[in-house]
Amino acid sequence: MTEDEKVTGIDLSTFYRVFEDTFRGSKEEICQRLKFYSPIFTYLNLRDGPKQCIDLGCGRGEWVSLASNEVENSTIFAIDFNIKMSQDTLNMKNVKTVISGALEYLKSLESNSIDLITSFHMVEHITNNELHQLVKESYRVLNTHGLLLLETPNPENFRVATETFYFDQTHIKPIPSALLKFMVDYYGFTRSNILRLSPRINYSDENICELTFLTAVSSDYSIIAQKNNDDIQAINDLFNCHYGASIESAAQKINERHLKRIDTISNLEKKQEKTDEIINIIKSSFFFKVLKWLKKKK
After folding, report:
1. CA geometry: angle at 145 spanning 140 and 147, to 5°?
2. pTM of the model
3. Mean pLDDT of residues grouped by 10 in the chain (298 residues)?
4. DSSP code for 13
5. Per the structure, how many domains does the chain have?
6. Is there a domain that residue 185 lies in?
7. Range of 39's domain?
8. Which SS3 state, helix, strand or coil, does residue 212 take?
9. Nearest 5°: CA angle at 117, between 112 and 122?
10. Count of beta carbons in the 10 Å neighbourhood of residue 68
11. In this structure, are 177 and 293 located in the same domain?
């Protein structure tokens, strides 16, 4: 327990571990989601020599477990200040668990020494100043073609921005994707991309509506950045493609649905007008008048 925990008698480290197990999802579910990033493993395996990878705020170690099995000839450094959160990483193969703060650990490393730095749902726990330092130090520590991957909740999603982000009371504030991308670009990374994750929009769904705009935008996003572009096809898709659903794409799809409905109504109105016109022509015809006269005679 920390000194504060000893004074208050509240074991927040254990509380947070149980909280993560309850709200983040099972380890199996998270590992399945993380396979989205498998091109990174392919890319690293194309490079010669031993690979040094760091996961900041490793938590239960889902990414650490995946990377240790997928990246050949690698050492994965699992960094977390909470020993109860990171205890699952202690016996993983090719993994070295370090009980430390993320920034403190990065500052202890040599320049140009690391192939990959990752952080999943950690940057929203640190201050703006610490985030600047983390990105700057990551750039310094990564080798020539090193990669940085930062995943965090997506405030474009209205439910995330107004509710689920605040489930975790250790969160400080949401980070807009454009801001985080600008930050990695500002500190020198030669290319970067926003990857929106967990999209819930089925664009072929005929029932897409305003509720889609409020809830179906990707609930998480990540920034992938490379220190120097080496244009290897294995990793290019993560930099060049558009992933997930943004608030703009959700709004566009809803607008398209509205326009389609308006067009349908307009066509029905035109058909009705045409029908009315035909009926009026018939009513004004000589034969219709004769029929009407004969009906009266009866």
Report:
1. 70
2. 0.79
3. 56 74 77 92 93 95 94 96 84 93 96 97 96 98 96 91 88 95 98 82 54 72 94 86 72 67 73 75 64 63
4. H
5. 2
6. yes
7. 3-245
8. helix
9. 140
10. 20
11. no
